[in-house]
Design goal:
Number of helices: 8
Oligomer: single chain
CATH superfamily: 5'-nuclease
Low-confidence stretches: none
Helix content: 40-55%
Mean pLDDT: 90
Shape: globular
Structural class: alpha/beta
CATH architecture: 3-Layer(aba) Sandwich
Order of helices and strands: EHHEHEHHEHEHH
């Protein structure tokens, strides 16, 4: 994925990244690093059930259409990860430029084998640092 083409990238995040940034009061870093962030209904549910978190309005909720594929993936991965992977596949099939944020190594490896562009929370922190959105000290306290 070209670095200077992040404006038109659809970012699909799993729950872990949202929780990590929320835990250090830095969820806005995600918004300032990427423009177009989507999550699935299961990710929204997982995020909001923790400590009364509320998804901000700048994050779009989008449900994957292929529920059969989601259900197959749920045998190996969590609900949020499964929906996120399927949504990323569907967005990619729609010719969208997609970056999937996953921290679970098994889910990441599966997504990479599906030829999806994948990063993790540390990758987001690194990108924010490179874009001067956060300082080195903030990056180190976030990770």
């Amino acid at each position: 994925m070209r670095e200077n083409n992040l404006q038109d990238v659809i970012i699909i995040s799993d729950t872990a990244c949202l929780i990590a940034f929320t835990n250090v009061n830095k969820l806005d870093v995600l918004k300032r690093t990427y423009n177009n962030i989507e999550i699935t209904p299961d990710v929204k549910y997982e995020y909001e059930k923790r400590k009364g978190n509320i998804i901000p309005d700048w994050i779009k909720i989008k449900e994957p259409k292929d529920t059969e594929f989601v259900n197959r993936l749920k045998k190996d991965f969590g609900a949020g990860e499964s929906q996120s992977i399927v949504l990323a596949v569907e967005e990619k099939e729609n010719k969208s430029n997609v970056l999937l944020i996953l921290d679970d190594s098994d889910a990441r490896n599966f997504a990479i084998n599906m030829e999806l562009n994948v990063t993790g929370t540390l990758g987001v922190i690194n990108k924010a640092r490179k874009k001067d959105i956060i300082t080195l000290n903030e990056a180190m306290s976030t990770s």
